[in-house]
Amino acid sequence: MVHRAVAAAAANNHHSSRNRGRGSKRYSVSVFYSMAAEQDVEVEDELAKAQRRLRELKTKISTQSKKNFMRERDVRFLDARIGLLIQNRMALDEQHEVASRLEDHDDDDVDHYPDDRRMQQYGNLFYLLQSEPRHIAILCRLVSLAEIDTLLQTVMFTLYGNQYESREEHLLLTMFQNVLAAQFETTTEFSSLLRANTPVSRMMTTYTRRGPGQSYLKSVLSEKINNLLEHKDLNLQINPLKVYDEVVERMEAEGGLPDGFPRSVTAEVAQSNPIVQEMIRPRLKTLMDIANSFLSTIMNSLDQVPYGIRWICKQIRSLTKRKYPDATEHAISSLIGGFFFLRFVNPAIVTPQAYMLVDGNPGNNSRTTLTLLAKMLQNLANKPSYAKETYMIPTNPFVEFNKQRTNKFLNDLCEVVDFYEQLEMDQYMALSKKDIMINITPNEIYSTLSLLQQHIDIISPQAADHLRILVSEVGPAPAQVPRKENKAIELPLFSRWEMPIQDLTMSLMSENNITQYDILYMEAKSIFVQIIRSLPYLSRPPLKLHYIAETAGTAKDAQLVHKGIKVKEMILELEEAGVIDRRDHHQLLVEEINHELVHLGDLKLKVMEELASLESVFKTIIDHNNYLKSQLESYKAYLQNVRMQSGIGASSCGGHSSKKQVVGIGVEVIDAKPSKKSNKVPAVQGPFRFSHQQLERDGIIAQTEVPENRRNHIFLTISSPIPGTFLISLHYKGRDKPVLEIDLKLDDLLEKQQDGIQLLDLEYIKLSVTKTLQLLTKTFMSRNR
């Protein structure tokens, strides 16, 4: 680590075009030595262990984020297709496409790696794409909206998939800068900038869904939204038409509508109704109080907003000022707010369950409140337009009152430093590394290669362009592989043209103003810090460097002995050179070591805090992944039943021969030949018994009217007389006949889930639709496979 740090600093000093004095260069190198001393190499203290756990956790979050992104794509596709299947309007080949989305990878041990020559070519190609983001930026502008999700998967979660590594993050942001600059250049109308659903807007939204953005949303919004959801009966509907419907419903429940009170009216009539006005008035006040509370929480979180989000805001402001020098501050703020609120914060408020901020789905009242809150926050960033939603006009006082401080907050978001110097250092450091890896699937490679070849004349028009040379050498993109073979491979990345930094010390010495003793001094400081981290009792003041070196040199640990002997020699050499003085007890070096130790103490607190925060984020991401898996399992169960009943597909219902063709990334289309229907009557499954306590504990019973002292005597049985149909019976111990019986079809449950209906009413108890689906899938469909 020390040598890599020195290499990066040397390269940066050598190649930087800015003129710096000796002090700044010495400081630059010193900072890198401090970074080296912070690392957990050959150290086993609490900080080192926490750093390793944090690094592992960040890798897991990055990996799991990609899995969730892929599952969400499948769920979005299946949501649309299953609706047609429920209504028996899906063609047979479409059913097979749905089936292919639900297939799992086989757990075989066969490697699907390309040969060595191909691996080297792909490694060169993807190194160039990663380290020169302008190529990907052009490609993102050229692809269609239908192609962008596939490309974004590769870019956001593979090419720059290490979401917490500065080099990859800064390269990704550089790509964003390219894309945004081109978007500003080609957009003719200011009002349409960053508004439309384009590949660029999809990119920006996808970026906000990465680990750091998810962590921010959870820490800032989760508690606020969960507190709101606890008040299930809080109705803040302010749309006069819907409030009027509430009045009608209440009157009918209480005995009927008065004479002359129409059941249905226009929006204008509803708005002028005194009963409606009286109901809306307190709701409006409560709604604005809640909106002010949400806004204050968001504004107070300025320092928590991820750097990348703020940097994109900064680019939007900078590009707007360059392209539209006469744009007002409010107009510029509206564009920044269009990204921060519209693309980042508001979607999480409107659908908190999709952003893993809450458990379960919000009720109807809560959903209405969250939607209204998001509209109010958006109106702060935009000039409010109420052409279609005049009922939002009464929220104008909230907008007027908060407009100035919102504009200030949006401008404050942009106040972050640039990363170009650090990226330059990171890039040079990368040249000295031999372990830059990405985890990428064959179909991601082939899809990216195919897009590059399709647009190469625009991306790299010159014959001598490095990208054009590499794409030409690789040749035509291979066909997509079947899903079961589309397993991630570790692809080492390395440069075809730049040479790694070989002689690190000579690189530093190439500039006259960094001496051999500068290097020796900083390396000695770094080693002393590592020794004290390994032997904390040596940190008691005053520090005696000879004693510390002697203690390490006579320790039982071989690594400490080596460090102790080495640093003892360094101290003598530095004394002889007059850099430090034994007579003042090496005061200069001791002060710097003490400063490093104080810094490490602060660092430990920060690492522990970040670790706790990310552990919570990782748990949430895993929970969301499990939810997506359960949804896919429900779809899989339904599709299996459809195919069983039609005599198509599942091997458990009669064999068929099939051939496979591949379309798209990892999608396997099965060209199935229907077999003759089996005459065998499917066996009844069950009944399976579940206690009231068990179902309540697992969240399957969402609401119950059974008195607590009787719940021990209540149980449910569920059986499946034919695939896809279930008989649910509610029993009371000691009685022969069930208290209640209902027939339930899987179609009905899936349809309820699609329509957002959360509860299944069994009179005495209400079941969660989603968790009931999970229970039926686990209990019955797993037995059919």
Commentary on this structure:
The structure is a single chain. This protein is α+β, with helices and mostly antiparallel strands. Helix content is 61%, strand content 8%. It has 28 helices and 11 strands. 35% of the residues are buried. The model is unreliable at 1-38, 88-92, 105-110, 500-513 and 646-679 (pLDDT under 50).
CATH level-4 homologous superfamily of the domain at 209-413:
GTPase Activation - p120gap, domain 1
The largest sheet has its strands arranged as 5-7-8-9
The SS-based structural class is alpha+beta
Overall outline = globular
Brief synopsis:
This protein is of the alpha+beta class and 785 residues long. Helices cover 61% and strands 8% of the residues.
Keywords:
8% strand, coiled coil, 785 residues, 28 helices, alpha+beta, disordered N terminus, 61% helix, RasGAP_dom, four-stranded antiparallel sheet, Ras-GAP domain-containing protein, GTPase Activation - p120GAP, domain 1, Rho_GTPase_activation_prot, three-stranded antiparallel sheet
Structural topology:
Blueprint: H1 2-15, H2 22-38, H3 46-86, H4 92-101, H5 116-131, H6 134-142, H7 145-159, H8 166-186, H9 199-208, H10 211-229, H11 240-253, H12 267-272, H13 274-299, H14 307-323, H15 329-350, H16 364-381, H17 396-413, H18 420-431, E1 437-440, H19 442-459, H20 466-474, E2 489-492, H21 504-509, H22 516-534, H23 545-553, H24 558-576, H25 587-646, E3 658-663, E4 667-672, E5 685-691, H26 692-697, E6 701-704, E7 714-722, E8 725-732, E9 740-745, H27 746-754, E10 759-761, E11 765-768, H28 769-784
